[in-house]
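Inputs:
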Amino acid sequence: MTKTENNRAWFLVLPVFALVAFSAIVPLMTVVNYSVQDIFGPDNRVFVGAEWYREILQDDRLRRALLRQFVFSLAVLVIEIPLGIAVALSMPRRGRWASLILVVLALPLLIPWNVVGTIWQIFGRADIGLGGVLVTALGIDYNYAANPFDAWATVLVMDVWHWTSLVALLCFSGLKAIPDAYYQAARIDGASNWAVFRYVQLPKLGNVLLIAVLLRFMDSFMIYSEPFVLTGGGPGNSTTFLSQTLARLAVGQFDLGPAAAFSLIYFLIILLFCWLFYTTMMQLGRGQQQ
Amino acid sequence: MARIELSRLAHSYRDRPSGESDYALKPTDHVWEDGVAYAILGPSGCGKTTLLNIMSGLLRPTAGKVLFDGRNVTELPTEERNIAQVFQFPVVYDTMTVFDNLAFPLRNRKIPETEIRGRVAEIARILDLASCLEQRAGALASDARQKISLGRGLVRTDVSAILFDEPLTVIDPHLKNSLRRKLEEVHRESRLTLIYVTHDQTEALTFADRVVVMHGGEIVQVDTPQALFERPAHTFVGHFVGSPGMNFVECGVDGDSAIFDGHRVRLAADTPMDAGSTGASLELGVRPEFLELVFDRPEHGVPAKITRVDDLGSSKIVTTAVGENTLKVRLAEEAHLSDAACWLVFPPEHSLLYRGSRLCRNPASDRP
């Protein structure tokens, strides 16, 4: 029997291609289009090449926002990943309590971003907010609207409150998937709790931790609503992260060219870091997959 | 090394067990002698794993005691019991090397590193793992992983016994034999108490000095493979051990003979004379291997009709009917079957009487 060569199967990919084109490729290309032109009006545009990119990369305000963004995302990962693991480890594996705790943990995840910001804005106020009053009562001079450190701390604590549950839930599902025999064998081998964590639980959590790190990195790197509502980026520019800087640039000043160039750089950074996390963590877990 | 004694040991997975059927393990007394290779044989769900987990301390029994050399260890956690257990599915620490896996139980017990190196090298040699000691354990195939699991049990020198919970289930058939021989070799060299759980009778009979047959949460017989075959203590053992299982027919008793379907069959000499005096149901049991099938009328025989012949290649299984009863006979492959009508001869020494499913015999006539 001879095989007939034809490439008609490619037509089957068309619907997906059309969908992705509308949802991603066309908007992205529009941004690319803006980023290389100076647009004065609908019929008045000039091709400027890489000028906007050069301008953006030398913009001090953006550099500082980028640095702030990295510090923030790093802090989020450093706090939320270990904390999430710890919470998952201390949860009961089954029974009525387990279900109850799962529901309570999931609550923050169900609250819309800007509502979270509003909640913390009120919660942190030193005059009427429960949190603010408590901290002040401890003798700490706390005011997130005036003190950059307090503002940072509040934004971080808010993010930890909002998203640690996600890490904990992911880890919990990962822990539940470990067969009992592993724990039994570890007990037979006389392993300490730390050894059980280090050699049984942590290796088995590898895959869910990868997902947790990716999700938390991407989300925290794109954070907008919560600090916008809570601090409005202040005091000064101390909690103005990348997305807010971008929004000011694009919607506030209407500098579409630089904003488009900046958007693309922003997108590439996230892509690059996700790829880095993915490859390194897959490399670490290589032995288990074979 | 120790003698492990179970005293009125029982376990139920329910919080408040009410009836006997709530117990996965019914009250059991048993002694595991030091240095003997045991097999626990029984179908799935008969309480084998429960018994094992209680001995290793992974499970706390509902009632009864576990004694190691007379010391009550029932309340002691696994870590303080000096017992090793190997599970059905391989458990290895994926991120460690094979060497570290084998060394892990020793390191946890703070044994000096030089001694560990010697021990691990020896076990690796026995289990053919020496060539991959530096590899990551997670990258190995499942039989090598199970060898590591076995190795972690064998590497310890302080163990009272090693418990194996169907450890060869996931192993390829051709590797099963070699691994089982390794275990036998280890047992011969170390004289450790080995307790090996399986539902595979071939595995149990070839591996063990003594086989413990369990059924419905109870130990029904503890004996050598030969005795299990020749003198099953319970009809379950008769059915479960041997292929095809033992023949059982309902019968009555008259003096030294069983009466079934109007025929007299002489019973084994150690059957008590008053066996029929209680109301319990009586059964005559005889192995297909011991029944004789003849076509000329013998002196003491039971007329039967051949209803089916299964040729197994090395032997024939002949199914015969005596009235309503069915009896199987194992014949040599070359046996010639001339007629459907035949006679069955019951050898008296192998014709056993069961009362209420249990073998009836005089206690005085036990094997020496």
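The mean pLDDT of chain A is 86. Flag for discussion at group meeting.
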